[in-house]
Amino acid sequence: MTAATTVLLMVLALAAGDEKKAAPVKYVVIFDFACSTTETGKKADYGRQLADAVRLRLRRHDDCKVIDRFTTAEMTPAAGVSLKTADKEIIALLKDKFAAHVAVFGDVQKLGPAVRAEIRYVDISGPKSVAWTKAFSDHTERARGVVACKIVEAVRGKAEWKPPEYGDETEPKSFGKPLNVNGDFESGKTGWRIGPDNVTTFLVADPRRRRRGKVLRIFTDVERNAWLKYRRDLMLGKADPSKPPRIGTVANKYATVAGLEGVHYRSEWIKAKPGRRYWLVADMKGRTGGIFFPKIFVKGFADFSAVADGLSESSLAEMKMTPDQFVALPREKQKQLIAADAKKHPERHRREVYRWYLACRNEKNTWQHYAAPFPPRGGLAKNIQWLRIDIYAYWPPGEYFFDNVHLYADPRQKTPKPEQKPRTPHYKPPTTQPVSKRD
Fold first, then answer.
1. Longest dimension (CA), the chain
2. Mean pLDDT computed over 148-168
């Protein structure tokens, strides 16, 4: 036996060993579900939509290869597939047309928000075929996603990974010193980038009984166009918040600030630490409804001055220059102005690279306390250089009160945590990162 032959046999042996260790992969065909509903015009649509949701979720797992919906539709019999279809017909389809191991099909009933799916599973991957029929139901706003998750768990025989949710971790009893300044609003606009505009944002006396001090009031039932002009004038130094204009509301509430942009109240910059976990806590009062509720964002920023090719409106106004005048300059002169502006106003060259928010749901319109940690998994990414708190309220139009908005380092963390990458297969990070900061 030659040395080359010996090496070849060793390679083949190792490959065979790897094949034994590798988890078996099943090819799965998911037929569009037959559907009955009381909703006009949606008899077939919801069955296809739910089947698509199952395909997408099942495709995330390496142990399943899902036949795409176009191929499935092309090879499905003209009469379709339902619970009335005999297993022997399903097995024939798997063997003769799809060359697949598993078939998933069934019937769906949709009555208003309620969904009930009766699903049949046929698996011919083993010496003997395996089949079962199970029912899955849900009546929440996310019924399709919930039912699709239950079906995938039954197909794989494993629980789906569940992302961290609000309330998973109990709030620490003590935090130490807040990382942001004046989160209780007792020192006026200190710690906040602009301060109240006295049209949509105000610092007012605490409305709670037997409470002293100040709270932030955000009012979103304001006519949009007039307010946008006022905010732009504030940004350019053409308006004084101590002498605000009188801006009322309008009958069409979709033409108010609440209907589109909403109102932001932003903190000063907070230096970020890669690998760190944080807690954001706050108190809020305001009537919310369904999917509409105030959010307190924590946004992460990085320095983009190295790749900047223009100037902000504030910087151009400061230089008494129009955008057309800037564009007409030679490229080298543009670079000089950008470099000088980045040195003078570095914050104007920071761009958002991370976002998380504290959900402030409050349908009772009473003072509530909120607290949650972030990042939900792992530590802060290394490309994040600064953090900023952004209190945001929009719909429904009305007033919202905030107090004790504090950012803390997680007191339970002893050492830096590595960044946890996204779990979505084939995820590609955004390319909008400063060149000097890319890995």
1. 96
2. 89
Contacts of residue 147, defined as CB under 8 A and 6 or more positions apart, other chains included, come to 50, 53, 115, 117, 136, 137, 138
> Please, are residues 278 and 175 in contact by the beta-carbon 8 Å criterion?
no
For residue 339, count other CB atoms closer than 10 A to its CB. Answer: 13
Which DSSP state fits 96? I
pTM over 0.85: no
Whether residue 18 has pLDDT greater than 80: no
The whole-angstrom separation of Cα 149 and Cα 147 is 5
81-107: average pLDDT: 94
Contact 29, 123 (CB under 8 A): no
pLDDT above 70 covers a percentage of the chain that reads 89
Angle value at C-alpha 148, between 144 and 151, nearest 5 degrees: 145
What pLDDT was estimated at residue 36?
Answer: 77
Domains defined for the chain, CATH in brackets = 23-156 (3.40.50.10610), 201-437 (no CATH)
How far is residue 103's CA from residue 191's CA, in Å, rounded to a whole number?
A: 59
Q: Are 191 and 183 in contact (CB under 8 A)?
A: yes
